[in-house]
Task: structure prediction
Amino acid sequence: MDFKKINKRQIILQLALQEAFRKRDECQIHFDQLDKKLSTMTADGCSFNEKDKVVESMTYLKSCRDDWQESIDHIREWQDELKI
Result:
């Protein structure tokens, strides 16, 4: 593979990595916000139905965060393959 193609692919992977980090961190921030909300709801004695909605959202965000982390891991592997 020629140097120009490798360089372009490295740039594309770096941009993808930055975006994946941003998305993963965004999921984590929203998850943390909901965790605080859940703590407040528990202290305030909110209904189980309301708490269940928050827990369901937290579960979804955790799944998204884990998926973005998996993407980050794959991008890093691809970057390593280009270095060879």
The chain has a mean pLDDT of 92. Residues 26 and 62 are 11 Å apart (CA to CA). The two ends are 11 Å apart (CA to CA).
